[in-house]
């Protein structure tokens, strides 16, 4: 049996180096290529990958091997390690964890506004999947450790994708400059492998997908799919979405799976840009939505 890491390395050998050529784009995604190309022409760093879920072949590949900041998308790697620990009933991780003042951070998530001081391990995965919860992320990392997350990513064959640090309000000179980095080739493959039950094992893969199916951020690529942001676990008009987003100043990243009536894809789109005005930000979101429309047309 071929392991996930062996399959990943085989795909890396078969995939050409980072590219940004129209010949690498399916005809269905020519509009996406043009929209993202405009951003790149204006100075943004753009990376995008779309894979067919049946064949695993790329439908869109734009600078797909380049590692860019991906903000909270890297939390998926923490969810993979957490799910694997739950699957094996790892006794070193308590089933109920406390939040401490050292874990406290605002912004994304709900736990920093909740009164309850402790939560079950699985509920923390749920909070991260649904609301990218920063406090739950820091609590889990404190118990699991960034090194374990790194080793898990390497075991999956991910060489350009990593969760680098805990969530911080500010980053000093001794801190990692980004929460996470990733290449869209690896991130699209990761979701492709999750869909096929190949990330660690089928139970672990399904647990990660269950958590991510609650994600409420459909503001980027997924904004084109017409789904209810707060309730899209069930199929709606033949569409089923699972995704994770990352947002930071000058960074927008969306990674996911979309299954439609005709086909399914895994996708990853990341844009690093100068976030100097609302106009700049909206142009990025508009281009990501164009990718979403092409994906929707392909699967539906």
From TrEMBL:
Residues covered by the Beta-lactamase class A catalytic domain: 49-271
Q: Compositional bias (Basic residues) spans? A: 1-11
- List, alphabetically, the Pfam families matched: Beta-lactamase2
UniProt KW Cell membrane keyword: no
The UniProt annotation puts the region (Disordered) at 1-23
- Composition bias of kind Basic and acidic residues appears in 12-23
Query: Sorted alphabetically, which Gene3D superfamilies does this protein's record hold?
Result: DD-peptidase/beta-lactamase superfamily
Q: What is this protein called?
A: Serine hydrolase
């Amino acid at each position: 049996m071929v392991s996930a890491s062996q399959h990943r390395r085989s795909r890396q050998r078969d995939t050409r180096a980072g590219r940004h050529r129209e010949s690498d784009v399916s005809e269905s995604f020519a509009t996406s290529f043009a929209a993202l190309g405009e951003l790149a022409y204006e100075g943004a760093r753009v990376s995008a990958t779309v894979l067919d879920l049946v064949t695993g072949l790329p439908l869109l590949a734009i600078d797909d091997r380049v590692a860019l900041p991906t903000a909270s998308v890297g939390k998926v790697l923490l969810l993979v390690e957490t799910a694997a620990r739950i699957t094996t009933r790892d006794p070193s991780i308590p089933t109920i964890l406390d939040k401490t003042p050292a874990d406290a951070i605002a912004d994304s998530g709900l736990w920093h506004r909740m009164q309850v001081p402790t939560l079950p391990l699985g509920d923390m995965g749920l909070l991260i999947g649904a609301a990218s919860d920063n406090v739950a992320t820091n609590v889990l990392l404190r118990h699991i450790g960034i090194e374990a997350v790194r080793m898990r990513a390497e075991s999956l064959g991910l060489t350009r994708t990593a969760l680098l640090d805990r969530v911080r309000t500010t980053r000093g000179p001794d801190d990692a400059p980004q929460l996470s980095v990733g290449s869209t080739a690896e991130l699209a493959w990761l979701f492709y492998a999750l869909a096929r039950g190949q990330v660690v094992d089928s139970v672990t893969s399904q647990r990660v997908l269950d958590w991510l199916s609650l994600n409420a951020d459909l503001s980027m690529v997924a904004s084109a799919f017409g789904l209810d942001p707060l309730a899209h676990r069930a199929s709606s008009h033949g569409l089923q979405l699972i995704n994770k987003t990352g947002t930071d100043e000058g960074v927008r990243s969306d990674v996911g799976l979309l299954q439609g009536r005709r086909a399914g894809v895994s996708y990853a789109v990341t844009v690093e840009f100068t976030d100097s005005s609302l106009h700049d930000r909206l142009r990025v979101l508009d281009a990501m939505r164009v990718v979403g429309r092409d994906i929707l047309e392909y699967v539906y």
